[in-house]
User: Fold this.
Amino acid sequence: MKFSMVFPSFLQRRVLAARRRQRPVTRKIKFAPLDGFHARLKAHVERYFAFTGRSPRDSTGMYVKTAIILLWFAASYVALVFFCPHWWQGLPAATSLGLAMAAVGFNIQHDGGHKSYSRSKWINHAMALTLDLLGGSSYVWDHKHNTMHHTYANITGHDDDINLGALARISPHQRRRKFHRLQHIYLWFLYGLISIKWHLLDDYRDIARGKVGNHAFARPKNWNLVIFIAGKAASFTLAFVLPAFFHPLWVVLLFYGSACWINGLAISVVFQLAHVVEEADFPLPNPTTGNMDNNWAVHQVQTTVDFARRNPVLTWFLGGLNYQIEHHLFPRISHVHYPRISRIVEHVCRRHGLEYHAQPSFFAGVASHFRWLWRMGQPIPK
Assistant:
């Protein structure tokens, strides 16, 4: 008996559409050819390094910064586990640990994962592995962040970083649900849970499925698999096993949850201020060609927003991720150069008639993100 004889045609279409949505995306979206904007931008940045004699990677300041952050992380962990016998003493130490974890991710792991830390392959790899020590997976991150997000920034259905599932609508092309009208309130708490979700669910799920979002990727094998398992075992030991020798289980869980919530909130908010704000575009492929109308470099400028560029303390802590336009255009350059490069990028954008978006402060970015969440949660006009 034929399928069409069992199901009405409209049900058949619904079933087939659901199956298509579950399949990994194999076709790559193509961007328009690069033009004079990207060539001029690249030439200006290369001229900057030639004129100053600086190296795009292997910065002495970055090595010093790495040592400071790792000492901060180690001191916070030791204080929390060995010198805080009561839960009320441990909460400040857990807060410090959560911020230190975020600093490791923003600065050390991020530059290492993008191969912008050093010209040495093994040094970059070692720095990227700090994510495994924190409970994540550098292997999964490489596919999810470097490949999916940096290539398809803010393209709904392709950039998994703007996919929060049914919990939220942060792109105008996503389905709206009634409870989304409150997302500008409840999402701030849920942002803090993202690290715990990564540690305990996402990495295992993505590897088991062999895809991130709708994009297929190769499961780890050989040394990559060994590193994944060893990293999870090491982070689990640091988070639960070792502390359990000195504290009751409920205190261990409280410390873990507090540190990871602070870490997750910091990571989530920094990403959202760069991409999920009123000034950022959410383009879709051309329905006729299936490709993007703009070239890759223009796309990065239009989907990304800088913030708090004149705040050196925040820039130091965030690893330059408040200069997201520069990071998306030059991910292989160490973040220590972003403040100076930003002047070049802004100048070239203006010469080519591209709007360069930058929030004057961190709180201005938070306000813009808040308004965008509220706007996306409102009923869609019919």
User: Anything to note?
Assistant: Residues 31-43+58-377 form one domain. The chain has one domain: 31-43+58-377. Residues 1-26 have pLDDT under 50 and may be disordered.
